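thought: fold this chain, then report.
action: predict
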Amino acid sequence: MKAIRRFTVRPVLPDPLRPLSDLSRNLRWSWHAETRELFQAVDPEGWRAAGGDPVRLLGSVSAARLAELARDRRFLRRLSAAADDLDDYLRGRRWYQNQSAQYADLPTAVAYFSPEFGVTAALPQYSGGLGILAGDHLKAASDLGVPLIGVGLLYRHGYFRQSLSRDGWQQEHYPLLDPNELPVSLLRQPGGAPVRVSLALPGGRCLHAHIWVAQVGRVPLLMLDSDVEENGPSERDVTDRLYGGGSEHRLLQEMLLGIGGVRAVRAYCELTGHPAPEVFHTNEGHAGFLGLERIRELSEDGIEFDAALEAVRAGTVFTTHTPVPAGIDRFDRELVARHFGDGAELPGVDVERILQLGMETYPGGEPNLFNMAVMGLRLAQRANGVSTLHGAVSREMFAGLWPGFDPEEVPITSITNGVHAPTWVAPEVFRLGARKIGSQRAEDALSVGGSQRWDSVTDIADGEIWELRRELREQLVTEVRTRLRASWRQRGAGAAELGWIDGVLDPDILTIGFARRVPSYKRLTLMLRDRDRLMELLLHPTRPVQIVVAGKAHPADDGGKRLVRELVRFADDPRVRHRIVFLPDYGMGMAQKLYPGCDVWLNNPLRPLEACGTSGMKAALNGCLNLSVLDGWWDEWYEPDFGWAIPTADGPTTDEDRRDDLEAAALYELIEQRVAPRFYDRGAGGLPERWIEMVRRTLANLGPKVLAGRMVREYVERLYTPAALAHRSMDAGAARELATWKARVRAAWPRVAVDHVEVDESNGTAELGSTLALRVRVALGDLQPEDVEVQAVAGRVDTDDRLRDAQTVPLKPAGGPDQQGRWVYEGPLTLDRTGPFGYTVRILPTHRLLAAGADLGLVAMPTQTTGEGAGVLMR
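observation:
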C-alpha cells in the first residue's frame, strides 16, 4: 500500500543534546571533521545508513540511544566543545573583518546568485562543476568572513540519479526531495507564516515561491521553491528539476532566480537585519534577470530607466563559465516579450528596453534571440572568465559587444577558479599535515592559504608520503568494488555472477581517474581511440595501469549517452574489467573518495573549450598528479613538477578525427614512456623517489594556488570592492549625469574623427630610446575635450602591421579649436623597444564614472588617408 500523504516527524532531543540540532542545521559540518566525527559517535551504523547526513541521522536515532547519550559525560564534553567551536567560527573575527578594520571601502554585503549550489551530497542541488564551484565559493567566503548571501532555487527532484541498463545505456531517476528532510529551514514572518515572493505571469496568473534557508557556515543560502499550494500545477513544477523542461520552463526558472531572488534577498535582510547587499554577483547568465528587478526598484523611486541602468551596472559583477556559444541559454524574442510589461512581470519597465539588453544585435549574432550571457554583460560594469585562458576566449567570444576594439581590450578580466580544500582534502591527508605543522596551522593552510604554511610539506619523509598514498588507493579500491557491485545488481546481475568484482583493481597499481560531465568536448572516450594500445597499457606485465571513470550525460544528450555506453561496454570486457571500471551516479560523495585515491588525474578536453576544470585541482590537493591537455587552469599553472601536459593538435587544418587520433597517441605515449616508468621506478628503499618528489612539489607549490580562499580574496579585492565603490558613487544624481552624458556622446560620435596625424622626426633617426613628437588634429563634433581621451597606441607589429603588446600614451590638447572646429593634440612617443615597431592614434569617450575606456564600445581611428596614421619603424 502507498501512503496518501507523507510528512516528517522530527526527533525531540533531550535538553543536554539540544546543541546537536544547531550543529546539524549548519552545513559547516560538511567540511569540519570534528563535527562529523561527533555525529558518527551518536550511532556509527546509523551514520553510515544516513550517508553521513546529520539531519537524517537524528531522525533515525532511537529515544533510548538519545537518553543514553544525554547521560554520557564524555560525549557531552565533546558536544559542548563542538558547539563552542561553531559559535566562535560564526562570531569571531576572520580575514574580512581584519581587512575592513583597515579599509572602509569593502562592501557591506554581496549577493551571489547561481542556478545550482553543490555544498554537500546531503543537499543535492547541483549537476556539475558550476554548482560545485558555487558551493565552494560560499564555503570559502564563510571561512574568510566575507558577508555573502547565496541565492538559488530548491529543486524538488534535484538533478537526476544515474544508473545503467544491462547493455550500458544511461538511465535517469528523479527521486523526490522533501525539504523537511533536508538541512534547510523555511523563512517565516514573525507570526510564523512562510515568507512568499510572487511573480506576475501572462494571463493574470502568478508564480509564488517560498524561501528555504541553508546555513553554510556564516553564509545564508536562500533557495526559492515554487511547490506551494497557491500555485497551479504548471507553476508548482517550475522548480521541479535542475536543467529540465523546455524553453518556457527554463525562462520561468531564470525569472524566479533573478527577479524572485532579489525579492527574497530584500525579505531576508528586512527580517534578519542582515546588511543589504551593495554588490550583486551573477554566476553565469541564468540569474541575469536580477538586474531588471533592481532597475524596477529604482524606477519606483522615480529614477528613469537609463539612469537606473547605470546605477545597477555599477554594483554588478558577471562571471561567465561558458567557452562555447552553444552553452548559453538563448530564448526566442517573442517568448521573452510575452513575460514582461503590462499584464506580466515588471509592468513599469519598457519591454523594448528589456529586449535591447539581451538581443544579439551585433555582427554574427541572431537578431531574434535573447541571449542571457549578453544581458549579463550589458547589465554588469565588471565581468570575468574563470581562468586566464578562458578570459582570453571570452574576450574573443563576446568581442562583438565592443566593436572597434581588439579582443584583448574587451573589458572581461579573469579570476581563476579555486576549490575549497577543507571539503576536498581527505582526512588522512589533513591528519598527516596536522602532525607535522599543528592542527590550527594545517586548517589555516587549507582555508586561507599562504605558501609558507604549505612549505612544511617538504619536511615529510618519503616513506610517510608513500604509505599515505597507498592507504588512500586501498580505500578507493574498496569503494569501487562496493559501488561496482551495487551497479551490477541494478543492471540485473545475480550474486553468483559477481565473484569477479572481488579482484577489481589493485592497491599497488598505478591508478588513473577520469570523472566529469559528458559533453562531447570533454572526450570521455578519447582513451578508446586505439583499444589494443589501451589494453596493452592496462595489462602490461610489469607496469600496468588501472582506470576509474565516472560521469553523467545530460538527459537530452543522446550523443553523450552513446559515449557512456561505449566506455561501459569496453569496461565490461572480461579481459580488462579488473583494470578499468565505470561508476554510475557521479556526485560529491563519490568524488570525495575518488580524488584522493587516484595517482593521476586525466583531463583531455578539446582545447580551449575547458573554462577551468576544477576536478584536477581537487585531485592535486590530495597529492594526485595531473595528466592533462593545456586548457583551463592547467594551461596557466602547469609545470613539469606537477604532472604532464598532453600535446594538442588543434591547428586550423587538422580535422576532428585526425586530431583525436594524434592526441590519443600522445596520451598513450606519455603513460607508457613517462608516467608509468616514474611510478614503478623504485629506489634502494623500494620507494619511487622521483614520483614522491612530484607529489611533494604538487602539494607545496601548486596547493596554495588552487584554493577557493585565494579565489574569493581576488574577487573581494579586484571586483567586489571596486563594484562597491562604484555603487556608492552612483547615487541618483550621478546615475542621471552618466546616463545623460552617454546619450550625448552616442549622438555626437558619428562626427568624431581623427583628421590628420603628423610626426616630427627632426631630432634624429628611429633608435631605441629616441622620441617622436606626435601632432594630431581631431574633430569632436558637439563634444568637448573633457568628453574624450586622444591616445597614441604603440607597440610591436606583426607581418600584417597588427599591433602586439601595445601601450597607450595620452595626448594633450594644444590650444582651442581652429576655424573648422578641429582640435590639435600633441605628445611624445618614446621608442622603447627594438625591431618592427608601429603606432596608431584613436579617440575614446572618457568620464570619471566609467569603469573602462571600452565601456561604450565607441572608438574613432584614423583612415588610410589621414597622413602618418599608422607608421611602421624598423631598427
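thought: worth noting. The first helix runs from residue 19 to 25.
final: C-alpha cells above.
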